[in-house]
Specification:
By secondary structure, the protein is an alpha/beta fold. The chain is built from 14 helices and 17 strands. The structure holds 4'-deoxy-4'-aminopyridoxal-5'-phosphate. 4'-deoxy-4'-aminopyridoxal-5'-phosphate (PMP) binds next to helix 4.
Length: about 400
């Protein structure tokens, strides 16, 4: 029913030229382009249907409230969460992790307790836990990864003990692309009585997760990596935990009653949504999820798998090129280096050829130390990319290699 060429028509950004060259957009792990049905919803709400939610009883306020709560139901169904009360809207993955780090930390973490992470985490799933450990006198423990980028799940139990308060793992690494066996990891952690937070920033756009099947305790993701507006994100948390956790930010909407002597809080999920939320963005997020679901996750996954396999194969034609994260399954990204070429030099030259690639530490300094390098080049694909674009990028890299050697 859909072809990649017809799908691309929904993404006007893909049809533009940069420096006079057709844009090849390979930075989808950083943020994805937006389809016109999503921008149409946002524009329509900004132009016409704009009323603050949950407080006004006028026409516009009511419509916006209804749409915002419909979006919550769409996200609930996307994650197969048992209840919309477990779906908290945030500004993104980082905001969601900070919410848990503060709120869960206040309630459950004490001196000498431990938080366990893996070596493959994004800075957003490291620094909030470091700050928590500093505040509480707790200890951060880190599970190293294997050379091929996989996690040694069989060693995980050595890192878990009665002191462990939370395990925080990425669903898929934004550097290596490697998809972690979340269900097994959660089962191992639960066997030690340890709850698990899954960073879904690199998982949501590739199908998300079934939170009941995997049984994770928290799942977080950003809308902007899932074809939705920036400034949107989701924190899923098990009701029992969210109920026990204190509010993170405070202000309007998260209260039940306020006097100068005492404030009581709203129930879930509003307890964690202080102030006016990004309700237009959230309605855009709903549209983005609907859009991808209409294409079908089967099509999305098939196309993205084809792209990553093609890229891995074609890139290996280049002498001296090293790929990081060689184990499967992978999301649709490839990070690599070419001997003797600084990744940022290559990225700048690619840019002038119309190719948007990412370079540098990719917000994962510990992984750069792990591989004893300063940075990498990364191509990350969406279902709207093509094998022809990959071929053009490989040809561009070969040219850059000649230029720089
Ligand atoms: N975790 C991972 C694995 C990511 O890739 C990213 C974004 N690059 C984040 C967290 C942070 O997401 P955001 O900047 O949207 O909050």
């Amino acid at each position: 029913m859909f072809t990649i060429q017809t799908i691309r028509k929904d993404f006007p950004a893909l049809a533009q030229k940069v420096y006079g060259k057709p844009l090849i957009y390979f930075d989808n792990a950083a943020t994805t382009q937006k389809p016109t049905p999503v921008t149409a919803v946002v524009n329509e709400m900004h132009n016409l249907t704009n009323g603050n939610i949950h407080r006004a009883f006028h026409y516009l306020g009511n419509i916006c409230t209804e749409r915002y709560e419909e979006a919550r139901e769409t996200v609930r169904a996307f994650l197969n969460a048992p209840s919309t009360e477990e779906i908290v809207f945030t500004a993104g993955t980082t905001a969601a992790i900070n919410t848990v780090a503060f709120s869960f930390g206040e309630r459950f973490v004490r001196t000498n307790d431990e938080i366990v992470l893996t070596e493959a985490e994004h800075h957003s799933n490291i620094v909030p836990w470091q700050l928590l450990c500093e505040r509480k006198g707790a200890v951060l423990k880190v599970l190293p990864i294997n050379d091929d980028g996989s996690l040694p799940v069989e060693k995980l139990h050595q890192f878990l003990s009665k002191k462990t308060k939370l395990l925080c793992i990425t669903q898929a690494s934004n550097v290596l692309g490697v998809i972690n066996p979340v269900k097994d990891i959660v089962a191992t952690a639960h066997a030690h009585g340890v709850p698990v937070l899954v960073d879904g920033a690199q998982g949501a756009a590739h199908g998300g997760i079934d939170v009941q099947d995997t049984n994770c305790d928290f799942y977080v993701f950003s809308g902007h990596k899932l074809y939705a507006p920036t400034g949107t994100g989701v924190l899923y948390g098990k009701q029992k935990l969210l109920n026990e956790m204190p509010p993170y930010q405070s202000g309007g909407e998260m209260i039940a009653s306020v006097t100068f002597e005492q404030t009581t809080y709203a129930g879930l999920p509003l307890k964690f949504e202080a102030g006016t939320p990004n309700f237009t963005g959230v309605c855009g997020l709903k549209k983005a999820i609907d859009y991808v679901q209409e294409l079908g996750w089967t099509l999305v996954k098939k196309q993205e798998e084809k792209l990553v396999r093609h890229a891995m194969q074609r890139l290996q034609e280049i002498d001296g090129l090293h790929i990081y994260g060689t184990t499967m399954p992978k999301t649709s990204l490839v990070s690599f280096n070419i001997d003797g070429i600084h990744p940022t030099d290559a990225a700048q030259l690619l840019d002038k050829m119309g190719i948007a690639a990412r370079s540098g530490h990719l917000c994962a300094d510990p992984l750069m130390h792990r591989f004893k390098i300063q940075g990498m080049l990364r191509f990350s694909f969406s279902f709207y990319n093509t094998t022809e674009e990959i071929d053009a990028a490989v040809a561009a890299l070969k040219k850059i290699k000649q230029m720089l050697h």
